[in-house]
Amino acid sequence: MRQHWIVCFPLIFALCAEPRHAGAQTNRASPENVEAYRLKVAVNEVSLTFHAADAHGLPVNDLKLDELSLLDNGKPPRRILEFHPLQDMSLRAGILIDTSDSMQQNVSADRAISIKFAQRLLRQQSDQAFVMDFGYLSKITQTWTNDQAALAAGIRQVVTGRENPLGGTAMLDAIFRACFNVFGKVDHAASGNFILLFSDGDDNASHASLEEVVDICQRSNTAIYAFRAEPVPSFFSFGPKTLAELATETGGRVFPSDDSEAGIDSDLRLIEADLRNQCRLIYNPAELKHDGAFHRIQLKTPERVESVNIRSGYYDRPR
User: What is the mean pLDDT of residues 114-138?
Assistant: First the structure.
């Protein structure tokens, strides 16, 4: 049996406050805004989604419940309510492109990768995406659409420095806004939700903390798939560590943005395979205190599963 970590998110949740800014307007979170964004979630049923693959990287879509062993904070669930594979899921993608000063040399390549995703992998019959440009500020250049041409036009509107009038980068605020304002309004159970993030991971202007961003991503069932730009030479950076933690905690991955064209194609196909082929397990935890504590989830899978793309846990929110 292989051991993996999974995050779970509440199957049903309610928003306790409306965001102060929405739509395509430029926005930067302030301390008051971050407080207003906080969600209150009473967890009674927990829904896990994960992608399992074999040694060849192919999806394992025939898993049975008796092949799995689940622990929630070290305890078996009180009751398993549902388990089933989810195949050929529709996608909901947020394309977030960092245009701050440190990313000037990367924006053109990031736009090209984003357009490739929109034109080759987005299915107009079932998928949708939006585009956000961020630096010190953030702006949605294209709202939800399944129109590949409209997405490409929104991507081409992303310009280096436009959202950076004061200098600095607020990457975490941009992700928080995307998850709360945009992904928070879609049916999390009906699609594979993810952010396609282009950044070096450096952040010196956000009000939202990494923990808060991971939390909102988990509760909106949104995975972070990052194309990482290399930090400026001779400049010490926490960016790679931040991106790695965002991906690990939300069930995503990190790729190098300077990969070959064939490598980029492979990365995009891997993202698609992860999100279109998942399993969902819904259960009642053995113990809930509604004290805001983090619950770590442990999942054991059979030997025929080589890897699992998963999230890390969930917050037991007060009632």
Answer: 95
Domain 90-276: which topology?
Answer: Rossmann fold (3.40.50)
d(CA 90, CA 123): 8
Q: Is the Cα torsion angle 283, 310, 39, 183 positive or negative in sign?
A: negative
pLDDT at 179 over 70: yes
Query: Is the distance from CB of 22 to CB of 172 less than 8 angstroms?
Result: no
Instruction: Tell me which residue of 64, 86, 81 sits closest to 282, measured CA to CA.
Output: 81
Could you state, in order of their start, the residue ranges of all structural domains in the chain? 2-86+278-315, 90-276
- Is the separation of the CB atoms in 9 and 314 below 8 Å? yes
- Secondary structure class of 88 (helix, strand, coil): coil
Report residue 275 as tokens: 């999100």
Q: Is the pTM of this model over 0.85?
A: no
How far apart are alpha carbons 45 and 130 in whole angstroms? 30
With the CA atoms of 9, 10, 11 and 12 taken in that order, what torsion angle do they form, in degrees rounded to the nearest 10?
Answer: -150
Q: Which residue has the tokens 């605020």?
A: 173
C-alpha triplet 168, 98, 313: angle, nearest 5°:
100
- Judged against a pLDDT cut of 80, whether residue 163 lies above it is answered with no
DSSP secondary structure string for all residues of 169-212: --HHHHHHHIIIIIGGGS-GGGEEEEEEEEE----SS-SS-HHH
